């Protein structure tokens, strides 16, 4: 996770989501800026966590205001071999995703499921009915020093779509500072 510390930018983002304006699934290219700042230790009794304080913002190409943001923490529990990301998106949703990884892993996956009391997902009352997020999964791959990619899938049961919406996002980020 130390390899991820810094300030990052990437303009190869691709979002696939159900668009309420268009009533169909739409692909949106985006650029992104992410900040990951190391902190720790955090002690939960004998549990020791180190982490990265993070925020990210994604813009449709050519637009001034971001269309997606996240705020949260990436965490590492070395004894349990767990990587975690707890974050919130400003739709009124919070996620704690986690997974198992080796300390020197260059790729790892974190998952969350709705109704789990550990790696879970919470949505506000409106979204829980209209666009219920049931699963989240993200795979992070450090491709080289100063380059990492992520690929994520958010499963949404949507009132306006038959079947599950596979809302996916991916990007490649390059360190610009830090
Ligand atoms: C880079 C990451 C992401 C981007 C760029 C993004 C972007 C979008 C876009 C463009 C929409 C369609 C909104 C509309 O037209 O109505 C959407 C919908 C949605 N997203 Fe994301 N999203 C991302 C990640 C996430 C994550 C991580 C979650 C939750 C864990 C999430 C939850 C949702 C939900 C619940 C909706 C449906 C809202 C509705 O239909 O009312 N998204 N997202």
Shape designation? globular
- Distance separating the two termini: 14 Å
The CATH architecture assignment turns out to be: Beta Barrel
CATH level 4 superfamily: Calycin beta-barrel core domain
Largest sheet: 11 strands, mixed, barrel
Overall description:
The structure is a single chain. The chain is mainly β and 178 residues long. It has one domain (2-177): Lipocalin, CATH 2.40.128. It has one helix at residues 125-130; strands at residues 6-19, 24-44, 47-60, 68-77, 82-89, 93-100, 107-114, 120-123, 131-144, 147-158, 164-177. The protein is globular. Protoporphyrin IX containing FE is lined by residues 15, 17-21, 28, 30, 58, 67-68, 89, 91, 93, 95, 127, 130-131, 133, 136, 154, 156, 167, 169. The site of protoporphyrin IX containing FE has 24 residues, from strand 1, strand 2, strand 6, helix 1 and strand 9.
Outline the fold blueprint:
Elements: E1 6-19, E2 24-44, E3 47-60, E4 68-77, E5 82-89, E6 93-100, E7 107-114, E8 120-123, H1 125-130, E9 131-144, E10 147-158, E11 164-177
Parallel strand pairs: 7-8
Antiparallel strand pairs: 1-2, 1-11, 2-3, 3-4, 4-5, 5-6, 6-8, 7-9, 9-10, 10-11
This protein binds protoporphyrin IX containing FE (HEM).
Core attributes:
mainly beta, 178 residues, globular, Lipocalin, binds protoporphyrin IX containing FE
In brief, what are we looking at here?
This protein has 178 residues and is mostly beta strands. 3% of the residues lie in helices and 71% in strands.
């Amino acid at each position: 996770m130390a390899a991820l510390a810094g300030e990052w930018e990437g303009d190869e983002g691709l979002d696939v989501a159900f668009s309420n304006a268009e009533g169909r699934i739409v692909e949106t290219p985006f650029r992104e800026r992410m900040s990951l700042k190391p902190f720790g230790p955090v002690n939960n009794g004998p549990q020791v966590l180190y982490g990265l304080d993070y925020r990210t913002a994604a813009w449709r190409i050519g637009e001034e205001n971001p269309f997606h943001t996240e705020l949260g923490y990436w965490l590492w529990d070395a004894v349990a071999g767990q990587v975690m990301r707890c974050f919130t998106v400003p739709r009124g949703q919070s996620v704690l995703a986690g997974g198992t990884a080796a300390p020197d892993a260059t790729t790892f996956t974190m998952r969350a499921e709705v109704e789990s009391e550990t790696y879970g997902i919470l949505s506000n009352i409106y979204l829980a009915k209209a666009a219920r997020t049931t699963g989240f999964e993200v795979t992070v791959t450090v491709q080289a020093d100063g380059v990492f990619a992520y690929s994520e899938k958010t499963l949404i049961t949507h009132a306006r779509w038959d079947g599950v919406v596979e809302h996916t996002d991916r990007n490649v980020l390059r360190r610009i500072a830090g």
